[in-house]
């Protein structure tokens, strides 16, 4: 079955950096849409960044564009999220998501598979 395992979360001061990893198994990684989403306490889940199906396009939310970078290593079936210039408002549980469809990768409704999440806390 499909498994997505995130790692790399933690506590960091404002202005610092973290790199999240998501190791995928059980799916055609190269042809899958791969996305990162986050959910802060009391808020709805929101889109962060994603590769579209077969990596045709890359998408970022306005709130992270220029600070976060999504990348992937197809040989390792792993997608990364490099987060720089972190702000307290970036504090959330970050989730990796995957789907083999061609729907918009910026909507969480279009992802069938989700990881367990990793906590990112940015102190001021």
Descriptive overview:
With 124 residues, this protein is mostly beta strands. It is 0% helix and 49% strand. The protein is globular.
What can be said about the biggest beta sheet?
7 strands, mixed
Fraction of residues in helices? under 10%
Strand content: over 45%
Q: How many beta-strand runs?
A: 11
Q: Report the C-alpha radius of gyration, rounded.
A: 13 Å
Report the span from N to C terminus: 40 Å
Can you give the mean pLDDT? 96
Structural class: mainly beta
Count of helix runs: 0
Low-confidence stretches: none
Shape: globular
Blueprint (SSEs and pairs):
Elements: E1 3-7, E2 10-13, E3 18-25, E4 33-39, E5 46-51, E6 58-60, E7 68-73, E8 78-83, E9 92-99, E10 113-114, E11 118-123
Parallel strand pairs: 2-11
Antiparallel strand pairs: 1-3, 3-8, 4-5, 4-9, 5-6, 7-8, 9-10, 9-11
